[in-house]
Amino acid sequence: MSEKAFQDYYPADLSHCYGCGNNNAHGHQIKSFWDGEETVAEFNPLPEHTAIPGFVYGGLIASLIDCHGTGSASAAAYKAAGRELGSEPALRFVTANLNVDFLAPTPMGQTLKLRGTITECKEKKVVVDITVSAGETVCAKGRVIAVKMPASMAS
Ligand SMILES: CCCCCCCC(=O)SCCNC(=O)CCNC(=O)[C@H](O)C(C)(C)COP(=O)(O)OP(=O)(O)OC[C@H]1O[C@@H](n2cnc3c(N)ncnc32)[C@H](O)[C@@H]1OP(=O)(O)O
Questions:
Q1: Domain for residue 26, yes or no?
Q2: How many angstroms does the Cα of residue 38 sit away from the middle of ligand 1?
């Protein structure tokens, strides 16, 4: 994919997140995009993301769902407002609630594909439902309730 990801529009001072911040060299730097009305992201787990040899750590999967969810929430909010991604003032969302179901063991050595559906989109709250698949297998599903970032979290 050559277009800019949702996270590429985050201002530099909000790009330190371990899951999605471009400025976090040790983070996952997840990249999310529109695919029609849904959102997509891919991630290739590294050996250090192992749970049991051959299988991916669930905390990583939760982290991917978390940041694909908050990124999707931001993109959905811009879309609902009829605004260009990245236009000011920034519409940024944080996680209020993260719920994950681990449905099948997630194998190492495969690209994980995340697919998000915007279930609810209000001015202050966006709900995103997400699946994580390895090949044809849906290994996990999750729901992110994202709420507009409070002013107290801005630097
Ligand atoms: C910006 C780039 C970085 C990306 C971040 C990546 C993801 C992260 O890791 S963020 C870090 C983890 N998250 C946090 O630290 C957030 C800490 N919590 C908070 O700041 C606040 O509790 C916050 C903002 C979530 C909610 O603020 P608050 O003022 O209580 O919201 P409030 O106005 O009451 O509620 C708004 C809506 O959200 C819902 N809501 C609020 N909190 C929750 C919750 N914990 N669970 C479910 N729903 C909730 C409310 O029910 C309400 O829904 P509705 O409009 O349908 O009635």
A1: yes
A2: 22
Look up the domain containing 83 and give its range.
6-153
Q: How far apart are CA 152 and CA 146, in angstroms?
A: 16
Residues with CB under 6 A from ligand 1: 10, 14, 17, 19-20, 66-67, 70, 92, 94-97, 122, 124-125, 145, 147, 149-150
SS3 63: helix
Query: Residue 87 sits in a domain of what CATH number?
Result: 3.10.129.10
Cα(116)–Cα(138) distance, rounded to whole angstroms? 13
CA of 71 to the centre of ligand 1 (A): 14
Rounded to two decimals, the pTM is: 0.97
ipTM above threshold 0.95: yes
pLDDT tens digit sequence for 64-90: 999 999 999 999 999 999 999 999 999
